[in-house]
């Protein structure tokens, strides 16, 4: 897996907008982020600059604005963060996490039914190979 930069929770909010709408300009990012989170434009522009410096985004000047493109895929970032979470809190095993949720009544009957369905569909796919 390629090296993925460390992104703060605040930077992640900006990344989600870029992933959804890229290529996207600075004013568009500011508009979309500030419609969800009460941040000043300078704060959002600082986040964009940090993400460029971390090589999570590429910025290209287009007239008076910058246009942003992601340098990492959203699924890669989510995969890395998921693995780090599992390792940090559950020794890297998914079944420990699921068991924790079940034992602490964090999963509803609907959640458990959906998990069974997902696992059953996966078993079916595995059997077809």
Automatic annotation (TrEMBL):
The keyword Transcription regulation belongs to this UniProt entry's keyword annotation: yes
Domain of life: Bacteria
Gene3D superfamilies assigned to the protein according to its UniProt record, in alphabetical order: Penicillinase repressor domain (1.10.4040.10), Winged helix-like DNA-binding domain superfamily/Winged helix DNA-binding domain (1.10.10.10)
Keyword list, A-Z: DNA-binding, Transcription, Transcription regulation
S-adenosyl-L-methionine in keyword set: no
InterPro entries in UniProt: BlaI_family, WH-like_DNA-bd_sf, WH_DNA-bd_sf
Sequence similarity: Belongs to the BlaI transcriptional regulatory family.
Protein name per Swiss-Prot or TrEMBL: BlaI/MecI/CopY family transcriptional regulator
Species of the source: Paracerasibacillus soli
């Amino acid at each position: 897996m390629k090296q993925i930069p460390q992104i703060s929770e605040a930077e992640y909010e900006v990344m989600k907008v870029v992933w959804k709408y890229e290529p996207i300009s600075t004013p568009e990012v500011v508009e979309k982020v500030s419609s969800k989170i009460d941040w000043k434009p300078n704060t959002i522009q600082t986040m964009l600059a940090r993400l460029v410096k971390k090589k999570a985004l590429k910025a290209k000047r287009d007239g008076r604005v910058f246009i942003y493109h992601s340098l990492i895929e959203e699924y890669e970032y989510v995969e890395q963060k998921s693995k780090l979470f599992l390792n940090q809190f559950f020794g890297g095993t998914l079944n420990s996490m699921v068991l924790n949720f079940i034992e602490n009544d964090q999963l509803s009957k609907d959640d458990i039914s959906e998990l069974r369905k997902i696992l059953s569909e996966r078993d079916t796919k595995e059997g077809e190979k």
